[in-house]
Amino acid sequence: MKIIGSLTSPYVRKVRIVFLEKKLEAALELENVWDAKTKIGSLNPLGKVPCLILDDGEAIYDSRVIVEYVDTLSPVGKLIPTESRERATVKTWEALADGIMDAGILARLEATWRPAEQQSQAWIERQMGKVDAALSQMSQELGENAWCHGNQMTLADIAVGCALAWLLLRFPKLEWQTKYANLDGLYQKLMLRSSFIETIPPAA
Predict the structure, then answer these.
(1) Which end of the chain is more exposed for a tag (fewer CB within 10 A), N or C?
(2) Where is the GST N-terminal domain (predicted)?
């Protein structure tokens, strides 16, 4: 199998971490979707990464679909519960984490891609408001628990860890670590795992 993606995409990182935690191998083929010469459209018509290419050539996307598929490939380190209610809870955590990145990316694009005179501060504030609300919800739901759900690491923790790491990379002045000490505790614990260490994005 082959993962098409970039080193800085938090969605790609989530997929790579799941592969590592499941003890499965997949080559990483780097692709810059913002490059005019990108060929990602021939694999994913939405033009997004990650995209997983299976051994038979079939393409699977997006990250939520990929990680759910990969979790079925090996019984090692089950990351998504099979029981429906627990499964929904873990996937809701993932949706919340992905939502942080979705909103953050929209805010960042507005501030970096559009000329200053065309930028909408109201739009940026709206997106960052979503980030703040999601962080607050995460902190409330985590409470004093060791993990987001249950007594061991799940996909919920991986997704949250990727979102928090991306915020540190792209919004270093947000200071969520000071405001939400329990989230920082979870983040620091995750960053000790080899899967997170091996996928640290370049500081760019």
Answers:
(1) C
(2) 1-78
What is the reported pTM?
0.96
Cβ contacts of 4 within 8 Å, gap of 6 or more: 29, 31, 40, 43, 44, 49, 50, 51, 52, 53
Question: Over the stretch 36-81, which tens digit does the pLDDT of each residue have?
Answer: 889 999 999 999 999 999 999 999 999 999 999 999 999 989 999 9
In this structure, are 67 and 100 located in the same domain? no
In a domain, 162, yes or no: yes
Distance (Å, whole) CA 185 – CA 45: 39
The string of pLDDT tens digits covering residues 121-161 is 999 999 999 999 999 999 999 999 999 999 999 999 999 99
Q: How far is the first Cα of the chain from the last one, in angstroms, to the nearest whole number? A: 28
Same domain, 94 and 173: yes
92 shares a domain with 6: no
- Domain extent for 167: 84-193
Output helix, strand, coil percentages for the chain, rounded to the nearest 5.
Answer: 55, 5, 40
